[in-house]
Design brief:
single chain, 396 residues, alpha/beta, Aspartate Aminotransferase, domain 1, Aspartate Aminotransferase, domain 2, 2 domains, seven-stranded mixed beta sheet, four-stranded mixed beta sheet, 13 helices, 17 strands, binds pyridoxal-5'-phosphate, N2-acetyl-L-ornithine:2-oxoglutarate 5-aminotransferase activity
């Protein structure tokens, strides 16, 4: 048998972390890595954060799981917190980002169904989007590498160019249920949508009674210096998918909606065995205890500016490799002139963890608790690696 016990769907790197501490990961032989990937925007509080660890330990010893058939004081409390802090009136808890997006898609369809217009079932989505790996969420993107071999895909999605309001408008017809968009594309290459685009989508939704659905699985939960990225745009969605950082590493997600948008989500329409169980709620609460705080958010903004400034200073020295920096807060991308995947691999070998993204972008997604010393260490190691990387490039 040649197949590995772990289904071989990931090109796993030789980095094999067994322990984490703050902003660092440690491999089997004790090798140290500066973790500016955060499990892809998940470990907001770094590794082994005492508040999160304690909350999970205490909840695990008290009550890990009960069915959603019972009352949930834990779920009610965390949902209330999200409602108080955001545009939303109601929350459905999931175990992952794709499930949060699934719930968002179902909520949007049910909205029109409940209004007696079940023909309004199609969400307009955008090029290079990433919404997850379930059948519905791969149907919602045009990325061939996610879809190849999985036909037939689900109907009910129409993909147009990202950040192109005219294209979005032109795609509308009598079947349109709304728009599903990442305000800042993550996997697609750290691409913030323009203000005019997001505002324009909101207006189209208001004029035509459509659902504006934001996928903030990557950009949400304090990553950009706001609790959710929509706050930067001054535009509220009807439905929002959240996950990744929301549990600080505990697998969970949430679908947030206004009362109006959730009109069709009545008893029996949706469910999840694990979703919102007491252990997940304890993790989510512990993360929010720390990140839902103006001083914390301001620090994310400040660290983001430091990091961005340092990267922008570095880039002219290595302009054979780097083109520029984009993103918001601590969701940054360095656009490269060369294959970003190969460079990310090279950085790993030098003790630096980052993530590749589409469009030859190197994603920089550190834990939100980084300090200036980590920014300095990162930029020093990155520019040192860039100088050494010059040689194979020049020889080529
Ligand atoms: C990661 C991601 C998802 C999928 O989340 P999973 O937890 O892997 O299912 C969906 N949308 C966006 C924007 C993401 O970055």
């Amino acid at each position: 048998m040649a197949i590995t016990p772990l289904m071989p769907v990931y090109p796993r790197s030789p980095v094999r972390p067994v322990r984490g501490e703050g902003v660092y990961l440690y491999g089997e032989q004790g090798e140290q890595y500066l973790d500016f990937a955060s499990g892809i925007a998940v470990n907001l509080l770094g590794h082994g954060h005492p508040h999160l660890t304690k909350a999970i330990q205490e909840q695990a010893a008290t009550l890990i799981h009960v069915s959603n058939l019972y009352g949930s004081p834990q779920g009610e409390a965390f949902a209330q917190r999200l409602v108080d802090l955001t545009f939303a009136d109601t929350v459905f808890f999931t175990n992952s980002g794709a499930e949060a997006v699934e719930c968002a898609i179902k909520t949007a369809r049910r909205y029109h169904h409940a209004k007696g217009q079940p023909e309004k079932h199609t969400l307009i989505t955008f090029s290079n989007a990433f919404h997850g790996r379930t059948m519905a969420t791969i149907s919602a993107t045009n990325q061939e590498k996610l879809r190849d071999g999985f036909a037939p895909l689900l109907p009910g999605f129409k993909v147009v160019e990202f950040d192109n309001l005219e294209a979005a408008k032109a795609a509308m017809d009598e079947h349109t249920a709304g728009f599903l968009v990442e305000p800042i594309q993550g996997e697609g290459g750290i691409r913030p949508a323009s203000q005019a685009f997001i505002k324009g989508l909101r207006e189209l939704c208001d004029e035509n009674d459509l659902m504006l659905v934001f996928d903030e699985v990557q950009c949400g939960v304090a990553r950009t210096g706001k609790l959710y990225a929509y706050e930067h745009y001054g535009v509220e969605p009807d439905i929002l998918a959240s996950a990744k950082g929301i549990g600080g590493g505990f697998p969970m997600g949430a679908c947030l909606a206004t009362e109006k948008a959730a009109a069709g989500m009545v008893i029996g329409t949706h469910g999840s065995t694990y979703g919102g169980n007491p252990l997940a709620m304890a993790a989510g609460q512990a993360v929010f205890d720390i990140v839902a705080d103006d001083a914390f958010l301001d620090n994310v903004t400040r660290m983001g500016e430091r990091l961005r400034g340092a990267l922008e200073q570095m880039i002219p020295n290595d302009d054979h490799l780097f083109e520029g920096v984009r993103g918001l807060g601590l969701m940054l991308g360095i656009k490269m002139k060369t294959d970003s995947r190969a460079f990310v691999t090279y950085l790993r070998e030098h003790g630096l963890l980052t993530v590749a993204a589409g469009d030859n972008v190197l994603r920089v997604l550190p834990p939100l608790v980084i300090e200036e010393a980590h920014v300095t260490e990162f930029v020093e190691k990155l520019s040192e690696a860039a100088r050494q990387y010059e040689m194979p490039q020049a020889a080529a």
